[in-house]
Design a protein that fits this description.
With 171 residues, this protein is mostly helical. It has one domain. The longest helix has 27 residues. The protein is elongated, with a radius of gyration of 22 Å.
Length: 171
Amino acid sequence: MAEGTEPAPAQPGRERPPAQEYGSHAFLLGWLITFVLFCALFPAWVGLSGAYSANEFALYWLEYFPGLLLTGFMPAMVIGIPLGLLTAWPLRRIPNQWVHVAVHTVVTGAVAAAVVLLVHAPEAALPMGLIFAISAGIGRLSVVKIVTSHQAKQAAAAAAARAGTAATKYE
């Protein structure tokens, strides 16, 4: 090693931890809320787009909601979980939870609209994209309080240190 040079860090770019950590419980809860909400909203959209009376609409919704829960579970796992992971991973360093909610909403809605546009009638792309976007946004919003925020931990430790209390060192 040349004189005056120092070795490179063992893991460059890992000097600071991610600003947010979902954890498996927060991620899976957000996915489950998104999935169930989609299964509730989709038959509502289909039922409202037809000429149904209130009673007919209620029966229509009760007929299709359980079927969507059963038939949609595997596609939601195969497509929804990887999409959620691919969307969440680059956002780890962004501390603002509202940015996370907005990105999950837009990305999920855009991907859903694109898929529906490719495999179904174009007139269904926008409504399906909106249903997926609303579901994903509410699903991500529902776990804001249980996502680990390292900046909040650091701020609490600093406040405790300023107050003169014994605070544990941030790891």
